Amino acid sequence: MSILKGKNILLGVTGSIAAYKACEIVRLLTKTGAGVQVMMTHSGTRMIGPATFAALSGRDVLTDLFPKTPKAGLEHIHLAETLDAIIVAPATANIIAKTAHGIADDLLSTTLLACDVPKLFAPAMNFRMWRNEATQSNIAVIKQRGVSIIDPTHGQLASLAVGEGRMAEPQTIVDALQKLLGGKQDYYGKRVLITAGPTREPIDPVRFLSNRSSGKMGYALAAAARERGAEVTLISGPTALEPVAGCDFIAVETAEEMEKQVREKAPDQELIIMAAAVADFRIAHPETQKMKREGSTPILKLEPNPDILRKLRPITDAYLVGFALEMEEGRKNALQKLREKNLDAIFLNYADRAQSGFDKETNEGILFFKDSEKEIPFELQSKNSLAHRILTAIRNEMSGREKRKG
Ligand code: C5P
Description:
By secondary structure, this protein is α/β, with parallel strands linked by helices. It has two domains: 8-182, Rossmann fold; 191-405, Rossmann fold (3-Layer(aba) Sandwich). The chain has helices spanning 22-31, 42-47, 50-57, 75-82, 93-101, 107-114, 127-131, 133-144, 170-180, 216-227, 255-265, 330-340, 383-405, and strands spanning 8-13, 35-40, 85-91, 119-123, 148-149, 153-156, 162-166, 191-196, 201-204, 207-209, 231-236, 248-251, 271-274, 281-283, 302-304, 319-326, 345-350, 362-369, 375-382. The chain has an eight-stranded mixed sheet with strand order 12-11-8-13-16-17-18-19, with helices on both faces. Strands 2-1-3-4-5 form a five-stranded parallel sheet, sandwiched between helices. A hairpin with a 2-residue loop joins strand 9 (201-204) and strand 10 (207-209). The chain is elongated. 42% of the residues are buried. Bound molecules: cytidine-5'-monophosphate. Residues 195, 255, 274, 276, 278, 280, 305, 307-309, 322-324, 337 line the site of cytidine-5'-monophosphate.
C-alpha cells in the first residue's frame, strides 16, 4: 500500500507551459489512493482550463483568494489544517520568488505561507530564467527553509531552445513525494524485471491455448517495487489489467515472445521475478487459416515451450525468483524447481485452494530461499499486501548476499 493512500495533497499549478503535465500528476496521485486538491494561479488557468483538473481530481479547483461567492471562513486557513503535503508543479520563477520572500498576493502564495506541511516544488521555466542568479538564490533560500526541489531537466524547452528548465517527469515527482512523506524506498534505483499473466499459444489465427492466470500477482509485485523506488520492467502476457504506471511495460502473447523479451532485458537486471504462468506446451504446427467445423475432427499435436527461467542463470547475475503453482506435494516440487531451475528463491502457491492462486484477489504461500535455506510462510491476504511482504523478504536476502560479497 502506498504511503500516499488516504493523504490529502494540494497540487499548485502555476503559469508554465508544463501545466498540462500536471494532469498526469493528478492521475498518478489519485491512483495511489490520495485525495488531490488542485489550486491554480491566474496564469496557470491561462495555460490549461480548471475544468480539466476538476474532472481529473473530482473536486472543485481553487483559484481565488476572494471567491465571488465567499464561503464561511477562509479557504487557505481551512486548508492549512487538512493538508498532508503541497506539490507545486510546475513551479514558475514567480512562485519561487514569492515563496522565498513571503509574498502572499494570491491564493496559492497565501496558502503556501499559511501551511506548515512538507512542500515539494518542481520548477519549469526557460533555461535563462532558471540560471538567473535571482532564481538560484531564491531556490537556495526556500531549500534552506525545508522546501524540497526536484531540479528541472535538460532538454528541449517550449521556446524550442535547448537547456535546463524542463519540469521533471510526473512519476519522478510522485516518487519524490512518497519519499518525502517517509515511504519505504528500499528498492531505490534497483533494476527489477517482473513477468506476469498467461501466455497464449495460437491454434489458428483466431484460437489459442492458454490458462486462467489473471496477472494480478505479477502486476501487484510490479506496482509495489515501483512504489519502493525500483526501475521496473513488466513483461506481460494478455490480461484485463491496466499497465502499471511508471513501469517500462512490454506486452507479449506467446511464450516464445516472452522468452525473447526476457532474455533481452535479463542481463541488466538486479532482480528478476517470473510470476508469469507460461504455457508449458504450444501447438506444434498452428494453422495459418481458421480451422473449419466441416471435415474430420482435428487432432492437436503439442510440443514443449522453452523453460524461460531455467535458462536465465548463465546470462544474468540478477537475483532469480520463480513461482511454483502446485496441487500435490507442493513443498517437494517447489524445492525441486528451486534447485533445477538454478533459482535464488521460489514462491510456492496453490492451484487447489478456494481463495488463492489463479484469478483471485487474495493469495497465500511459502517463500523458499536457497542461500539461507529459510522458508517464510505467508497467510491469506490481498495480492497487493502479499507483494509488499514478498519484496521485503527478498530485499533482506539480497542485502545478506551483498554483505557477504563485501
Ligand atoms: O515448471 P513450472 O512451470 O512449474 O515453473 C514455474 C516457474 O517457471 C514460474 O516462475 C514460471 O514463470 C517459470 N516458467 C518459465 N517458462 C516456462 C514455464 C515456467 O519461465 N516455460
